[in-house]
Amino acid sequence: xxxxxxxxxxxxxxxxxxxxxxxxxxxxxxxxxxxxxxxxxxxxxxxxxxxxxxxxxxxxxxxxxxxxxxxxxxxxxxxxxxxxxxxxxxxxxxxxxxxxxxxxxxxxxxxxxxxxxxxxxxxxxxxxxxxxxxxxxxxxxxxxxxxxxxxxxxxxxxxxxxxxxxxxxxxxxxxxxxxxxxxxxxxxxxxxxxxxxxxxxxxxxxxxxxxxxxxxxxxxxxxxxxxxxxxxxxxxxxxxxxxxxxxxxxxxxxxxxxxxxxxxxxxxxxxxxxxx
Length: 276
What we know:
The chain folds into 3 domains: about 5-115, Tetrapyrrole methylase, N-terminal domain (Cobalt-precorrin-4 Transmethylase, domain 1, 3-Layer(aba) Sandwich), CATH 3.40.1010.10; about 115-225, Methyltransferase, Cobalt-precorrin-4 Transmethylase, Domain 2, CATH 3.30.950; about 230-270, no CATH class. It is built from 11 helices and 10 strands. It has helices at about 20-30, 35-45, 60-75, 95-100, 115-125, 140-150, 165-175, 200-210, 235-245, 250-265, 265-270, and strands spanning about 5-10, 30-35, 55, 75-80, 105-110, 130-135, 155-160, 180-185, 195-200, 215-220. A 5-stranded parallel sheet has the order 3-2-4-1-5, with helices on both faces. A 5-stranded mixed sheet has the order 6-7-10-8-9.
């Protein structure tokens, strides 16, 4: 008879956020599959739980899936955890879940802390509706294309980002969404040095460009207001507005920026109008 797979939510920082049910499951299972066994060992030591650990992460998932599935089919109960939060979000947990379900293994999700929901509530921005975009692309061009596709998104947008790419990501957001778009930058949620900063994207660029950037980040960006989307302004109207400012002495870049602030359309889009 097949065993069981448990996807267990673990704390995103403060270890006190672990749930009673999660502790019970971690004590009950035969084995724990972890994204980083060293990180999970610290949690288990805190909980005074001793269980066999095996690694399961992006770069060994193909090798480990077969092993874990064979253990499940042999009757073992296995808990899958990530370094923080819910497994299956921005990690290979969903792959193992689908393999187990396909093989007839019972799968149970044990809910727990989740960084994106915590950040969304803390941001003070509209919580419904929202769209979670995960990590932005690493390469600049791909990241700019990704953000460009979201220029007219009216839902609140949630992104994960690493410290060494934070400022570059904010700069690309300013180009895509406009410097005045509202954003909340959350860092080290539930930890000792938790920080939540709210304001315009331009303000966040100025702040984080002036210091060493450390920690794990979740960015909450307000959606484009319905009246501010490019659909509310034809290309002809946007071009005429920019040209009027240029005729009054503004540079193309300066005029495009001013029109973007008035309409909510993207600076780069307005700048390129008429260039083809």
